[in-house]
Write a structure and sequence with these properties.
Chain lengths: 210, 210
DNA sequence: GTACATTTAGACCAAATGTACTAAATTTTT
DNA sequence: AAAAATTTAGTACATTTGGTCTAAATGTAC
């Protein structure tokens, strides 16, 4: 029965999302699945191992989605669609971002790995920005390091929007998600050219004031 | 001896900062201070009570500082100075921001209180922006709700820059702090007018490219 | 059907934690 | 100095947790 392993991953994810990593023990997970505690340990020796597997799961799904995303002709729309999809996926594994610092403290290997992934992500945004500039949708830098700063701020937003939502937004999932995607997009707005802003208003659904 | 109570608060703060709230028990705090754990419990019945006291402490200090801050003639410089001071204070109680979501989950009262403080903070930023616009340092809104979004993004940055720094920046405290203050200020940059940008370059220490 | 490997459950242990209770020590008040 | 209040320490207990060990159950290959 390979099914047990999958049930554990699924159950653990749900418990983590609902109660937070720190408040969930291997015993609680086992109890919620109505299997013995030692059975769970047979499949995953520690909580960290479980978290690592879930992280791999998340990365795998994210990778697949990025490949599947058909190329939008318009870059602004493409960015929007990418984020809509990506944010939804992340939400499914939201315990990971809510307890990010806790997890990183407990698991040195995961921390290192996370830093590696981040450098990739950072480069992706760098390229995205260069493309936007190349297509005349975004203005160039106004001072040295301006876009390096922008990317760092994007990083903070990406890492913690879910944590923030947990504290401030108790509404329904769909609405919250949509709001934060818009919030993400709004980071770019003031750097866009007239042409870029036109696209922004068209696709993001906020009307310009003139 | 009232001193014990203060020593406990100080010691708890340091342990929380170093190891994270979830990994620090009342017993550990007592041991680090070389007092009996029942002695500690005599002063603070639970960990939550301890955290609430530390939160009050933080609010009190922040309030005093805000009053003390002499009025800068220049608003941009004033904002910079306020943030330099505020960020440093927050850093001293950084466990609070690093384990924000964990604490909010454990302590419903503190969560509500935090939400109240946030509405005040939000209003402050709203006024700050209005003043900047009034002085011709910042442009008006380009679409309805643009600055409401800006304020929410500022909120996320303010709440989680320390958490982010803990993951990505292992450097020395002073340098990290300075970097994140600059990062904070850079949020405003693209909304500034020519006049505002001039002040920005003057005070923040980055040179414009023309 | 038998032998083997995999999976599951139950019992047990040591460490840590919150909590309660009692008594001693110290400070403050009278 | 005596009495009262506050502060501190010691002990003990129930719970939870991660972890180990053994044995039963289940599936698989021959």
């Amino acid at each position: 029965m390979k099914k047990t392993k999958e049930r554990i991953l699924q159950g653990a994810k749900e418990l983590f999302n609902a109660q937070g990593v720190a408040n969930v023990s291997l015993r609680k997970i086992a109890a919620s699945l109505k299997i013995s505690h030692s059975n769970l340990i047979y499949h995953f020796k520690t909580k960290n191992e479980l978290i690592e597997h879930l992280h791999q799961e998340l990365l795998h799904i994210a990778k697949l989605e990025n490949q599947k995303l058909r190329q939008e002709k318009n870059r602004i729309l493409g960015l929007l669609r990418t984020m809509e999809k990506g944010f939804a996926t992340l939400w499914d594994y939201r315990f990971f971002m809510i307890d990010l610092n806790f997890i990183m403290k407990e698991n040195e290997a995961l921390h290192s790995f996370f830093l590696e992934v981040e450098t990739l992500r950072s480069k992706m945004y760098q390229e995205e920005i260069e493309c936007l500039i190349g297509e005349g949708l975004m203005r160039g830098e106004s001072y040295v390091g301006e876009y390096a700063q922008l990317i760092k701020r994007i990083r903070i937003f990406s890492d913690y929007w879910i944590a923030s939502a947990q504290i401030y937004d108790q509404g329904e999932y769909q609405r919250v998600l949509k709001e934060y995607v818009q919030l993400f997009m709004s980071i770019f707005y003031p750097y866009l050219t007239v042409k870029g802003k036109k696209d922004f208003h068209l696709y993001i659904g906020v009307k310009g004031l003139g």
